[in-house]
Amino acid sequence: MKIDEISSPELRGGQNDLHSQLCSQIESSIKDIEKHVPGTALPDSFSTDLRRSISQLNSLSPYPNSVKLHIWKLSYRLWNACVDLSNAAGFKTSGHKIDEEHAKLRQVSADLLFLASDVSGIPSPAIKSASFFYKTGLIWHDLRKFEHANYCFEKATDLLSKVEISTISENEEKRFLLDLNIARSRTAWEVSDRNLAVALLSRSKSMLFAVAENYKALANQYLTFGKAILSKNEASGVNEALRLMNDALELCERGLTVVKRTEDTLALKELRSKTLRFLAAVHLQRDEFESVLKCVKVLRDGEKDQHPSLSVLAMKAWLGLRRFGEAEKELRGMVVDKGIPEVVWVSAVESYFQVVGAAGAATVKGVFLGLLGRCHVSAGAAIRVVSKVLGDPAGAGEETRLRAKVVSDLVSDDRILTLLSGEDTSRERTAMHALLWNCATEHFRSKDFQTSAEIFEKSLLYNPSDIESRNLRAKGFRVLCLCYMGLSQLDRAQEYINEAEKLEPNIASTFLKFKIYLQKNECDGAISQLQAMPSRLDFTTEFLSLAAHEAIVCRCHPVTVASLSLLLNFYPTGKQMPTTEVVVFRTLVTTLSQGPQNDSDILKQMKRAHTRLSELGADKFFGKGEIGRRERNWFSVNAWNSGVKTGQEDQHALSAEFFRLASEFYGASIDEEKEGNHVMVCKSLIMTVSAIISDERQRKSSLLENKVKEAISLLDRAGKMLRSSSTEYDKLEAIIEPNLLFMYTWCAFDLYSRLDDTGSQQLLLIKRFANSKCCNPNHLLQIGIDASQGPRSNHEVATFALSTCLSILLASSSPDYESVALILRKLICLRSIHGADSNDDATMETYKQAYRIMVGLREGEYPVEEAKWLAMTAWNRAAIPVRMGNVDEAKRWMSMGLELAKKVPGMQTYRSCMEDFVAGLQKKLSGE
């Protein structure tokens, strides 16, 4: 006995009440859905409430047949409500959320119908329930919810598995079995379960029921899977794609044996041709070129198929077999066949050109122009053709140049020009110009200037000559100028830039003209363009800086100097400049230094730099920190070196100016320096004064008094920087070279001699120098000689300097007797010229000193001529006292002369005469 049979009537009555209550809840929800406004989002509460009610209802199974009929009706009512909402919203709702809610409600409807799938009184209830799951699964598949779709398809499959196929008689139900299996296979394919997908298709072969449409559907699905594998370009998938397409071809063949209606035959034959074409494509991908040609032959002979792809497949297969003649025939045949679209033909040309390369250039050009005859209806087609043949212009090599050559010939053809010359083809002309321009640009970047120039020239053919396009034409002329400059065809480059300047006289055209003149080594022309640059409306100082760099590279010094000089004019204006002013000055001076006879120009620019230094201050002109110090030292050292150089070349006036500038540059303080290069400032000032005096002597003209005072002030500056009130020379000795200290002393002495009442200053100056540790007897000798002669002589200074020098020489272990003799002669001459009678004793003492020096010397060690001079002058000094009757004085000088003569070799005769004279004089005096 069954459980429901032993149940009490009360229990059965209670279950019926629950069934009715739940069905009422479901019906209430369906009514709410029917009232929902189409196009608005469905709340998820509908599906949630319905799902809860179905779950409760499922727990109360089994149901009476009446309840099943009620559930059946409710399911259809919910399904129809969903259909109405979808139709009212326009087939597909506008949001992803709304689509999912619809799918959920369809799922609820299918699940609800599944509860009553064994209802009595309804024909084929399992098939109808399975159709709900199938249609819901299709919706989930479209939403790419493959798990839900697979669930629905499996539910439908389970329902149909209980139905005996032999009992199915209607074609729609037979087709439903096939469609369900194919749909389930598609879902498995989407989740990458290829084995299951193919297995389901294989299982579907038993559900064809000798219906041509079924053969077509299944074959089409095999072909779809094969195409999907091919689209991924996976080498491992080619074999699988080939197998699937062979299955599709086999189904087409089987279907043609059972087909009866003409329209069904045509449909299967069309699918068969399509499959064969894809099979040929697969064989082409596997490099099975013979198989490709067999497929093409079958299609052309058996099917009379003239699909545009057949020529392309055949041509590529012939190319693969390296049979270029047959490939060319296929290519030329496409030109004749007007049914072949341009895009297909262009693809074929690209393939042929890619394989044959340079060997097929003439063929491609001829075929290309042949196509031109049927491109007159479409200007866009010509653009696509040119674009395909050009390929990627960024590639380098002969292949890319050959493509560009073919395109160059094509776009200059009168038919293409006519095609794109109408008013309605302005957009295509712009596109063609851009295409050619970009191609030429890539060739320019790869330094292929010849090809670039050719394509740029062709692009001008598609540039309108109206006023609005004149700037674009000028730009084209400028880039052509650049191309021919790269080819070193400067005359032609100049022609193009002249045309560009007529259309658009801007700074770019002026700069290119400048470069051409520069490369032609026409300095005057280049400088004229430099001078014209600031007058351009779009001028910026960067162009002058760039021009200077170009001139430096070309080693054209006059142009470099002109550009830098012009650039310097803009710094005081406060404009934004490309580099610092000090760098421009440094570059300018360096450039001038590389040429001969530029000392005056260098001085001019250095003075100009010093003026800017005075205006801006050291920190702003040179820069701060270590960079500023390096810049200052560069200018200082170069001014010093220029002073040395010009001084060595006897250009003393320039030398003085350079040294004065050096003192100013060395004296500039960087970044709050407390002490600058004081030593170098001092040296520079001393060298300045020395050069001034040297220039005076060179010109043989005296300095004016104001110039003398100015020079003295420079020396005073040098002294004040390095001395204190008590240790002047100690400091000088410690930091500057002895020669510079002597130069300082000598220059000061020379300048003081030009002023009145400065004799004591001169003597004090020399005494200080003589007391310094770096005093050199040669320096003192020089000072003594200079002080002893000339209109501005100072016998006190000369006497002191010579006497001090003599003392130093005699104190030496090996005195220089040449200098000693010279000093003695100078001292005797000074005392003779500037002395009085009272000074004769001093003069006599000098002679005696000379005698004492000669005593003990080897013969000839003391200069013989000087010794003779001493002896003769001492003897001759007795002449005046003899005349005056001053016998004692005369005897004293004659005695000195005789003693000196005894020390001089070669004076025996003179000495005998002297002795005789003395003896005679003595007798005379005795007689008297």
Structural write-up:
- Pfam families: SPO22 (PF08631).
- The protein is mostly helical and 928 residues long.
- Among the domains are: 208-304, Methane Monooxygenase Hydroxylase, Chain G, domain 1; 305-377, no CATH class; 397-480, no CATH class; 505-579; 816-927.
- The chain is built from 46 helices and no strands.
On the 0 to 100 scale, the average pLDDT is: 82
Intertermini distance: 205 Å
Give the CA-based shape.
elongated
Low-confidence stretches: 1-13, 91-97, 724-728
- DSSP summary, beta strand count: 0
Number of helices: 46
Strand content: under 5%
List the helices and strands and how they pair.
Blueprint: H1 3-6, H2 9-35, H3 44-58, H4 65-88, H5 96-115, H6 125-142, H7 146-161, H8 171-190, H9 194-204, H10 212-231, H11 238-258, H12 262-285, H13 289-301, H14 308-320, H15 324-336, H16 342-356, H17 361-371, H18 379-390, H19 398-411, H20 414-419, H21 426-445, H22 449-459, H23 470-486, H24 490-503, H25 507-519, H26 523-532, H27 541-553, H28 557-568, H29 581-593, H30 599-616, H31 618-622, H32 625-648, H33 652-667, H34 678-699, H35 705-722, H36 728-735, H37 738-752, H38 759-771, H39 777-787, H40 795-810, H41 817-834, H42 840-854, H43 864-876, H44 879-884, H45 887-902, H46 908-927
Helix pairs in contact: 2-3, 2-4, 3-5, 4-5, 5-6, 6-7, 6-8, 7-8, 8-9, 8-10, 10-11, 10-12, 11-12, 12-13, 12-14, 13-14, 14-15, 14-16, 15-16, 15-17, 16-17, 16-18, 17-19, 18-21, 19-22, 21-22, 22-23, 23-24, 23-25, 24-25, 25-26, 25-27, 26-28, 27-28, 28-29, 29-30, 30-33, 32-33, 33-34, 34-35, ...
